[in-house]
Amino acid sequence: MLEEFARAKVNLTLHITGQRENGYHMLDSLVMFASTGDILSFDHATDLSLRIDGPEARALPVENNSILSAAHNLDSTKGASIRLTKHLPVSSGIGGGSADAAAAYRGLSKLWNLPEPPLSQDFCARISRIGADVPVCVFSRTTRMSGIGERLEFLTHLPMLHAVLVNPRVAVSTQAVFKTVTNKSNPAMGELPSFFSGQASFISWLSQNRNDMQSAAMSLEPAISDTLNAISSSHACQLARMSGSGATCFGIYPDAGAAENAASQISGKHSDWWVQSCTLGA
């Protein structure tokens, strides 16, 4: 049996820079991956099957699951028994479905003795049909992602961050958020400095950037504003922002202790929310 860890994807920045004639949105985003996520296991079988368990399993149907789409994309003739233990909230802006599909791609490639996924625009364009975040999640490395998600630039010089992820237990439709965004031709991030003296200088740079979906998501789901307020008012928070299309938001803290204390503070006030301290970029 093989196992793959499907790490949560966090968009530290997300700039919408245009929209193609086919409706796909052009993005420029700095992505890090968290130390929390889902777990997939794989075993040999004649037919392809998927079962789902875990604390977030009840919100996720087996039918039309992105994991099965990834399996068919890889090789529609082969079988496998796949188990997903679901820890990440569904439709939450941290790439849960995309991370699961990407982990399936990695795990099934090993199970079926296929070549490792290549870093090429052709490969990324092909698997982005499953979901725009699937290419970046396949590699699960700190990345500057652009185009419609098929252009990946791995970054190795950015500091690891201590963070808290918070979801107010509301699902947000990515399509609905995109439709609500009024300006879809915004400036890209600009040049990423080749050196940061430490976490403080990196966070200073991050604060000059943005998530262009945040205001639209807040207009659709006011709980996102409450979430950002809860994070930003927690002790030692250095930056609070929404990830992806929401509703999960993140806070960045100076060290692990501060992040753990903030998670405890936030969950104590909002016991019905999903709250998780973690590292980003580790």
TrEMBL record:
Keywords on record: ATP-binding, Isoprene biosynthesis, Kinase, Nucleotide-binding, Transferase
One GO process term, biological-process aspect: terpenoid biosynthetic process
Enzyme class: transferase
Gene Ontology MF term list: 4-(cytidine 5'-diphospho)-2-C-methyl-D-erythritol kinase activity; ATP binding
InterPro entries: GHMP_kinase_C_dom (IPR013750), GHMP_kinase_C_sf (IPR036554), GHMP_kinase_N_dom (IPR006204), IspE (IPR004424), Ribosomal_Su5_D2-typ_SF (IPR020568), Ribsml_uS5_D2-typ_fold_subgr (IPR014721)
Entry annotation: catalytic residues: 9, 133
UniProt binding sites for ATP: 89-99
Domain of life: Bacteria
Catalytic activity: 4-CDP-2-C-methyl-D-erythritol + ATP = 4-CDP-2-C-methyl-D-erythritol 2-phosphate + ADP + H(+)
Pathway participation: Isoprenoid biosynthesis; isopentenyl diphosphate biosynthesis via DXP pathway; isopentenyl diphosphate from 1-deoxy-D-xylulose 5-phosphate: step 3/6
Protein purpose: Catalyzes the phosphorylation of the position 2 hydroxy group of 4-diphosphocytidyl-2C-methyl-D-erythritol.
Family: Belongs to the GHMP kinase family. IspE subfamily.
Protein name: 4-diphosphocytidyl-2-C-methyl-D-erythritol kinase
Organism from which the protein derives: Litoreibacter janthinus
Gene, per the UniProt record: ispE
